[in-house]
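Need UDP-glucose 6-dehydrogenase's 3D structure for a figure. Predict it.
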Amino acid sequence: MAHRLTVIGTGYLGATHAACMADLGFEVLGLDVDEEKVARLSAGDLPFYEPGLEPLLRRGLASGRLRFTSSYAEAAEFGDVHFLCVGTPQKAGEYAADLSYVNGAVDALAPLLRRPCLLVGKSTVPVGTAERLAGTLARLAPAGGDAVLAWNPEFLREGFAVQDTLHPDRIVAGLPAEQGAAEHAEKVLREVYATMLAAGVPFITADYPTSELVKVSANAFLATKISFINAMAEVCEAAHADVTKLSEALSYDDRIGGRFLGPGLGFGGGCLPKDIRAFMARAGELGADQALTFLREVDEINIRRRIRMVDLARQQLGGSFIGRTVGVLGAAFKPDSDDVRDSPALDVAASIRAQGGKVTVYDPQAMRNARRAQPSLDFADSTLSAVRGAHVVLLLTEWKVFREMDPGDLAEVVAERSILDGRNALDPELWRAAGWNYRALGRP
Ligand SMILES: NC(=O)C1=CN([C@@H]2O[C@H](COP(=O)(O)OP(=O)(O)OC[C@H]3O[C@@H](n4cnc5c(N)ncnc54)[C@H](O)[C@@H]3O)[C@@H](O)[C@H]2O)C=CC1
Ligand SMILES: O=C(O)[C@H]1O[C@H](OP(=O)(O)OP(=O)(O)OC[C@H]2O[C@@H](n3ccc(=O)[nH]c3=O)[C@H](O)[C@@H]2O)[C@H](O)[C@@H](O)[C@@H]1O
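Structure prediction for UDP-glucose 6-dehydrogenase:
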């Protein structure tokens, strides 16, 4: 009989995982402590923006295979496999990850686990967490040794979450040390991911710590690649060179590759920034801090891009933001997402506002989250209303609608034809030909 799955924590990761697994034919019960989220998901109303996910959610609900609850007792009774997908944000005022949600979820679930089951961690956690949680499970679960823990980190990207879940690059399974438990966990995971394995997706088994480290080192590598090209952008600015040409030329070298080599305002979001910081904190606890001191530089290069953007805007306005109007295009941390966690765009907008500028922001999907995160900013409901009367326009998130803007349309409403392209997303020649003063990070 097919395994019955639960997904604990139905945010960006969990809701996607739940809907995709239901679409693959499993019976899935999603659990969240946020009652409003449970109600919205149960009504087929996705609480966040993710392309292609809502139809899957609705299909799952209509089929009867997908349901949501806030009852741990119901989840424990229902599930053969429990996927742990709760958040692991940065602790306030520290680099380390806040594990209170992960601990809280396991503490709530474990005492209710009476029958054989597999608990599968997907949240991104500091190395050593799985081993500790396996101890919690052994101590609290009435099922005893029949409740087994595996660690199965997730690599999906927001904006491509459905595609990445159904067609992952690889599946990593962190297994317990005890052979019988490891064999059982691997067998169950292979059954759960049978569709992906049949399509040839690599399946890598490892011990707990290796599986946890695969995840954080992947994000550390991606962050490093972005900061590398942004460091080159800084040098290009000093040397009057063009980082976009540099990046293109590098990309043809297969050993380097062009992905994640996009220079601009740098990385944000609920993952890369907090994951590299948590990684540094954990390495410090392990006495391996020297190995990761370069990540501090990666973080600093990244933050410097935001400061540089604000400086460039101030320069463009003749040295001060006071009494000047700034139109900001983009609030999400990247296009095709409504996520504003550690968003470079919102950070820049808020900083200009704090320095006396009148800032109006527009984003195609992130307005609700942006308003909540930065209530002191002004918001508009379209590109043209955001830039109306602007002395400078800042493109900070490269949504398709912004990449395809007509310089002529904007010229009719702005106070000055001045644009800063924070994502190297526009064609400078096109904008300059239309009479705009076009400037970008890392290019003349
Ligand atoms: N967002 C992404 O693209 C990816 C996220 N991850 C990792 O997945 C984890 C979750 O991330 P997101 O989904 O982005 O976070 P999120 O904040 O969108 O979702 C977390 C959910 O967990 C719920 N929750 C908190 N405590 C709970 C508890 N005790 N029981 C049940 N539910 C509880 C929250 O109400 C929330 O709905 C993090 O560790 C993150 O690093 C990994 C890969 C991709
Ligand atoms: O652990 C996670 O949660 C996820 O974090 C990232 O995914 P995500 O945060 O959705 O977004 P990315 O596409 O990685 O972009 C991150 C940031 O880097 C920026 N970026 C990306 C690429 C690039 O070339 N340049 C650049 O500045 C984006 O604008 C964005 O702010 C990873 O790509 C996923 O594999 C991982 O699962």
